[in-house]
Write a structure and sequence with these properties.
With about 375 residues, the chain is α+β, with helices and mostly antiparallel strands. It has 11 helices and 17 strands. Strand 6 and strand 7 form a beta hairpin. Helix 7 runs parallel beside helix 10. The longest helix is centred in the C-terminal third of the chain and has 21 residues. The termini are far apart.
Length: about 375
């Protein structure tokens, strides 16, 4: 009995002195505002004057960068093997693999640009087929992977197009919060993606709500890479903003290829139009296709001497990266329609961050 009392007394003392030896986390930060933004996007979507395809003709001379290619011949699907040591692999690549192994498997990157983790996404593809992005640490070891193509393999049979209910049956309930420093962030406010902590990595599985909630993409980040980012957003810089622009352009084209559509060509002038609108929204704290001067996307394009016969605009705000922005836009019917519109051949992307490092994304699609 004395031993039992001693144990109880010890527990009481430990509990009462806990502030001396344990860090307290601040109250939860609810990220549900992203859902509010998505609802707002849905409201905007209902206006055909904004997110639908609009025929407009101007007499201005258009300045183009390149010529939009036609649909390319489909590349061969690589043979995928079950991962050797981890739950998931992408194009037979796992976290920790060497850069030399990656490039022996997939060739040289087509582009590299900074991401919100302070590393770079290296984009590998064949005319946007077999598309993946890879991040490397200082020792040229893989610490990040993303794909929205049929390059996912796993030990338990999860792959592209696997239903969400099957994923949860195999992996269990997803994470509902993540700690960053002294703050807990509430996750999984929607069913559009699930977070898992496994194999010393954080895995985000994205679902397509228009394809019966099946797997449409995967993002895998090494545990130490995620831990180095203290908040949910990256630090504002010119290279990060430019990186977000190129990454959104690339993942958009990768999605179009999946759906058998022509690749879009980057257009510098309309990217400037998009960038100015993102900067205006970030500076003046609003989120709308119509700016504070009452100009529509098409008014802004005409003012910037962009000649077009059909055009559309997508907006996103508050998502952690271009990956999350793109996957969210694909789950909104009106924005998805712009992304998968076969009449568009040119795209410009502009990104700005506000004082809290939350990104504003603007996509301007058009054809002449």
């Amino acid at each position: 009995m004395k031993k039992l009392l001693s144990v109880v007394l010890l527990l009481v003392v430990a509990f009462n002195t806990r502030p001396l030896w344990e860090e307290y986390a601040e109250p939860y930060v609810n990220l549900a505002f992203v859902d509010v933004i998505r609802d707002e996007l849905e409201d905007i979507r209902e206006s055909s004057a904004v997110t639908g395809t609009v025929d407009r003709v101007t007499s201005e001379v258009k300045s183009l960068v390149g010529i939009a290619p036609e649909t390319v011949e489909r590349a061969e699907q690589p043979a995928l093997a079950a991962p050797e040591s981890q739950t998931f692999s992408v194009y037979n690549i796992q976290i920790g693999d060497s850069r030399s192994k990656v490039e022996q498997e997939v060739g040289a990157p087509k582009r590299h640009s900074q991401n919100e983790y302070g590393t770079e996404w290296y984009a590998y593809h064949e005319n946007y087929q077999n598309f993946l992005m890879v991040s490397y640490d200082e020792e040229n070891r893989v610490n990040g992977l993303y794909t929205n193509h049929n390059l996912i393999s796993s030990k338990n049979g999860i792959a592209l197009n696997t239903p969400q209910e099957n994923v949860r049956e195999k992996l269990g309930e997803p994470m509902d919060k993540m700690r960053k420093g002294l703050t807990y962030y509430i996750l999984n406010e929607t069913n559009e993606h699930d977070y898992y902590h496994m194999d010393d990595s954080y895995v985000t599985i994205f679902y397509d709500v228009h394809e019966q909630d099946t797997v449409t993409a995967i993002l895998i980040l090494a545990e130490d890479l995620e831990a180095e980012k203290k908040g949910m957003y990256g630090e504002n810089s010119a290279v990060l903003r430019k990186g977000f622009e190129y990454q959104l352009f690339d993942v958009t084209n990768a999605a179009r290829v999946v759906h058998g559509l022509p690749i879009l060509t980057w257009d510098d002038p309309v990217s400037g139009t998009a960038r100015e609108h993102s900067q205006d929204m970030a500076q003046h704290v609003y989120f709308d296709h119509t700016n504070l001067e009452g100009q529509s996307p098409f008014d802004r394009m005409e003012e910037d001497r962009i000649h077009f016969t059909t055009a559309g605009e997508n907006l996103a705000y508050g998502q952690f990266s271009s990956i999350f922005a793109h996957e969210g836009l694909m789950n909104s019917a009106g924005h998805r329609k712009n992304i998968l519109n076969g009449d568009f051949h040119y795209l410009g992307v502009g990104v700005a961050l506000n004082s809290e490092n939350q990104p504003y994304f603007t996509e301007n699609f058009f054809d002449n």
